[in-house]
Amino acid sequence: MDESEVIDVVTEQGAARVELDTPQGPPRLLLVLTHGSAGTVAAPDLLAVRTAALGLGAAVARVTQPFRLAGRRAPGSAARQDDAWTEIVTGLRKERFPGLPLIQGGRSNGARVACRTAGAVGAEAVVALAFPLHPPGRPERSRVEELRGAGVDVLVVNGDRDAFGVPEESDAARLVVLPGEGHDLNKNPARVGGVVAEWLLGRMQ
User: Which range marks the domain in which residue 70 is found?
Assistant: First the structure.
């Protein structure tokens, strides 16, 4: 039976929370996920990815960042957000999963954080769900350089109706665009989990 645990973490940017699920037997990799700006780690797509990754033998940590645990909907400074994330993930690996391969990701703003910090935490790859290419209606304010600058392979899963835009295939190692899905990716979360599981399995073989 899979095991679940809640871990409270104190960072220099405030308190955070890690909801950790571990598989039966020794985990094969650590997948760390986080929420969007105003969302939670109970988002349907994140839960679907958790379930799918556990089925592959991954340990899955869903992180509520300090700004959300404090009740704020806006993440504030990207530098402070990235510092907190790096502290959380580095500590989790050191204390619980030393030497285990790390893949990190998140949805929307969380995908941006995962891309920006991949190198700092030693992630082998990034899962970017609903990567917000630009603010709605503002394509000139592209964030594509965060995606391209991750320095590792990035899987992007976006809906074709996402008001935040959809990256190009050349912007990531793999781009999957799901028909009928918007930014929430909540019409068929199991499909999102399946896409991520297929990609993870290919990396684990």
Answer: 3-204
